[in-house]
Amino acid sequence: MRCSNAVDCQRFLRGSLLVLLLQLVVACAQKPVGQLELMPPPDVYGDGLFNPLPKSNPFLDIPYDGILYATDRQPAGPDDEELFYRNERGQVLRVGYAEIQMGEGDLTWEQARQVSLLKARTAEFPVKIGKVTEWGIVGETIPYWVDAGLPEEAPLPPDAVDQFAQAINDQLANSDSKDIYLYTHGYLVTFVNPLLVSAELWHFLGYRGAFIAYAWPSTPHRLAYIKDSDTAVGYARNLRLLLEVLAEKTNAEEIHIIGYSNGTRLVVQALEQLALINQHRTEEEIQETLRIGNVILLGSDIDRAAFGNSLADGLLKVCRHLSVYVSAEDKALGISRFLTNKRRLGELWTGDGNEIHPQARQALENLRGQMSFINVTEAEGATDGNGHHYFRQSPWASSDILMTLYYGLEPEQRGLVRQTDLPVYTFPPDYISRLWGNIQRLNPDWAEGDQAPSE
């Protein structure tokens, strides 16, 4: 199309952008149903050499027979189309659990255990959400200020902090791992999505420790990006309060956080709040109190400069280690950059005006022991689709993430190598054999076979 004047050109550009947005900003989208096809198994579990799954059905021992959740969405009513919770902001943080099913109902646990680890499955293997039970609210999240646009709620349920913490402690008592894992999702999804993703991540962790799905009120509408971005930042207080509750009332040795896409804003903002609240304390005192271990940011849709401000406010004093996964082929973040005119944290530094600033390069070198940037561009399957779902699509990326959580391995210990041109780690062609060799060295008494390695 040839533009006749500047106004026509601007209209054409806006129209083209809208078409592009509708086509590509499906970064975190899932169909609003109560099931999800199980992600491919991480390659580290290939060939049956390492099977992390318990031989007996873990749901027989989980005290709440499902996955824990926390959400600040509005509860769904009988006339609502949404499942369990609406795609709207609520006024408080609610906690409970959801029953989950791995595979079809007629599968035995042993069959589900074996089939879920097959690299080439011949049949569908859905992860399903069944009954959802809300225990109550986190009382501290009752707001001081309520916007006029929010509906008046019915009388709030009771404070369920103690019940939630007790459920976690009961699960930790049953597990060899005493850690909590928390996943928070990106934009454009319904309440059930983070529960389903958390369920599959927990499955491939062998049901270690306790897992919490954090479902903030994103909106499954492609044009809700600005609204969801505001929510991710503005509702970080609720996540911060939950982390404080987990540190105060549970027996967890460490609390690990996995943030994805727009949800990484929520994570970074909550951690920055914790850093500012505790700025008078030493790093050792903060970490001893909060017990936040690995924080993993995936496809991070954060302004790089804003992230730098969070670092300056003491973000890294709050967690033991921060891992930031980046890609040169993440098309969803490319659109976010176009919309905001700012480079995103989850984008890899490249040429064409995207070179790393010398000050940023020096900061990454100085912070190597506390923060790692990991380039997934060369990881198997990481650029499929729009290149934004690599943590579920790439068997190498999922291996790296899960082994970070399983063993607490540092990048070199997982088989990653430093790039020569950037202070960033990348995946070498023999990544899986490197990772597997390191796992064997961690378990010298472990004989190969169908069992999980010893701790």
Automatic annotation (TrEMBL):
Pfam families: DUF900. InterPro entries: AB_hydrolase_fold, DUF900_hydrolase. PROSITE patterns: PROKAR_LIPOPROTEIN. The keyword Hydrolase applies. Keywords: Hydrolase. GO terms for molecular function: hydrolase activity. This is Alpha/beta hydrolase.
